[in-house]
Design brief:
about 325 residues; alpha/beta; TIM Barrel; seven-stranded parallel sheet; 7 strands; elongated
């Protein structure tokens, strides 16, 4: 952490200069000869919003100051308060620390309308992935909890492993019992770009894939993501209507913000998912929101800003398309 001092009159300029990237600071606005950094220090502004307004731009929050300021800046960026529910969370059925009911009540207490529980699938043996009999038991518990906790709702999900050949864990008759499915890679990570890309493309094309989980497989400060043809992946998600997760775990932050805007431009929905393995992890959605905002994501293109009823309809419509 760094602490900087300045006279009160220079606070706005110093805060701006220390929260923007070089590409933002070095931008020369139309009809100006000096950069934003130089202009910020030329006169004292009452606020950062007043500074942007004087230059003819909408206010850019600090997290959006990576590139030049934008004349088409979206005024309704996603905010944490826009999220109506939590998708991608684990319980003691697999490798979570808290029971399903505890995770659901924690979401309810935090003001959310729903929880999409997504314990690991059977191939993730290292994470106590669910055998088919355990799925049946979990679904029975979900049915009971949905009656007890109504109008709060638990959606029946799974984080299904994408196997080495791109197929999904479990046979079709099991997959169809879930409301939604997050497809993720957890094993066999040493792939070249062609293999990694083809593996994901096959999973994306699977009719039961609802959300593509932590796309690159990276773990920050520990493991680089595997090489991918991101353009091909985004095109496939757009073509098949697959949502891309912004995994909000501070260990992942994946999809990286540099690809969020490209996904948005292709009309792909994104979902801010905490990948929570305990009740405290539910709050990690705030990191995902910050990543989304860096990529200029609006609430309207974020899956879990839907109400519980609207999301249930979304899942049901997807399943109907499979049966047609």
């Amino acid at each position: 952490m760094q602490v900087r001092y300045c006279p009160p009159a220079q606070l706005v300029a110093e805060r701006f200069v220390n929260t923007a990237a070089p590409a933002h600071l070095g931008f020369v606005a139309p009809a100006q000869t000096q950069s934003l950094m130089q202009l910020a220090r030329l006169q004292n502004f009452s606020s950062e919003a007043a500074f942007y307004e004087a230059l003819g731009f909408a206010y850019h929050p600090p997290e959006t100051r990576e590139g030049p300021p934008r004349s088409d800046f979206p005024l309704a960026l996603l905010e944490t308060k826009d999220l109506k529910g939590i998708l991608h969370a684990h319980s003691t059925y697999s490798d979570g620390k808290h029971r399903l009911e505890e995770m659901a009540r924690a979401c309810q207490k935090a003001g959310y309308e729903y929880l999409g529980i997504t314990d690991h699938s059977q191939s993730a043996f290292y994470a106590n992935g669910l055998k088919i009999a355990q799925i049946q038991a979990q679904h029975a518990e979900i049915d009971a909890l949905n009656q007890a906790l109504a109008p709060f709702r638990i959606f029946k999900g799974i984080e299904a492993d994408i196997l080495a050949d791109g197929s999904l864990d479990y046979p079709e008759e099991v997959l169809q019992t879930f409301d939604f499915l997050i497809a993720s890679v957890h094993a066999n990570l040493k792939m070249d770009q062609a293999k990694a890309t083809q593996r994901l493309l096959k999973a994306i094309a699977h009719p039961y894939t609802t959300i593509l989980g932590h796309l690159s497989g990276r773990i920050l400060l520990r493991r680089e993501g595997y090489p991918l043809d991101y353009e091909a992946i985004l095109e496939a998600c757009a073509a098949h209507g697959v949502v891309i997760e912004i995994n909000a775990s501070p260990y992942r932050l994946d999809l990286d913000w540099t690809w969020v805007e490209k996904a948005r431009e292709k009309g792909i929905l994104l979902s801010i998912n905490p990948d929570a393995h305990d009740m405290a992890g539910i709050a990690d959605v705030r990191y995902g929101v910050q990543m989304a905002r860096k990529g200029f994501l609006p609430a309207s293109q974020t899956l879990n800003t839907l109400s519980a009823e609207a999301l249930a309809n979304y899942f049901e419509q997807r399943k109907r398309r499979i049966q047609m």
